[in-house]
Specification:
The chain is an alpha+beta fold. The chain has a single domain, classed as Glutaredoxin. The protein contains 8 helices and 9 strands.
Length: 236
């Protein structure tokens, strides 16, 4: 009779641990509890600063209807400044605003865009209406505003604290020929305003700034800051 002999090797620590019910129970408890722990102990970003309170205003939108602060109550909105015949910075700025319109669709009726013309003599409601339709803007989200030059300067300069100049001739060299264009000094920045009409930020139009704007607006809309008691004390 032949007796088979062999070598028996004891399981190492790792193999024993992998067969242990206690190990797997501990593993799954840790896997499920860690995200909960992180959500409870996560560090929230500091609240956005409050720069200024936008004064009450009433202008005229592209539908030749009154539009102002009363229509924006409870909304978080982005304000920008341009004129339809702008030969320099406005086309690129408005392309960025088109992108913003698409990016805020998920915020529903809480978010809005308000565009102020700095050339009210030429940018009548009819002109703004054609301009808005050409850009396929959503009138439920995006309003184009005009009014008297005095009213616009008051809200743009004194309200949003950004520049608005007068129309001036600008000479440029194009294909070895000098041509004269008319430009109006105005800011290229966009302004983030909260539901109380308070300015919470000024942003450039490069990718980094646009991403920062979207993050900040999302935080405001979703009320992510956990400082309600402190805010109430300040208000009182």
């Amino acid at each position: 009779m032949t007796i088979a002999t062999g070598y028996y090797r004891d399981d190492n620590f790792f193999q024993k641990m992998m067969r242990s019910k206690v190990f797997w129970l501990s593993f799954w408890v840790l896997m499920f509890s860690y995200p909960v722990y992180r959500s409870i102990h996560r560090v929230l970003p500091p609240p956005l600063p409050v720069y200024y309170k936008v004064p009450e205003f009433s202008l005229t939108n592209e539908f030749n209807k009154p539009f102002g602060t009363k229509d924006l109550q409870g909304k978080y909105y982005i304000a920008n400044f341009m004129f339809t015949s702008c030969p320099t910075t406005c086309p690129a700025l408005m392309d960025k605003m088109d992108v913003i319109q698409k990016r805020i669709r998920g915020l529903g009726t809480k978010a809005a865009i308000v565009t102020f013309t700095v050339d009210p003599k030429n940018d009548t409601p009819e002109v703004l209406f054609k301009y808005a339709r050409k850009r396929h803007t959503n009138p439920y989200v995006w309003n184009f505003l005009t009014g008297t030059e005095a009213d616009l300067k008051k809200i743009v300069i004194d309200g949003y604290k950004v520049p608005m100049g007068n129309k001036e001739a600008v000479t440029k060299q194009v294909d070895n020929q000098k041509i004269t264009l008319f430009d109006i000094v105005h800011t290229e920045k966009v302004v983030l305003v909260d539901e109380k009409g308070q300015i919470r930020g000024y942003y450039g139009t490069d990718k980094v700034e646009m991403d920062r704007l979207m993050i900040d607006m999302g935080l405001l809309v979703n009320n992510s800051f956990s400082y309600p008691k402190e805010d109430k004390k300040k208000e009182n």
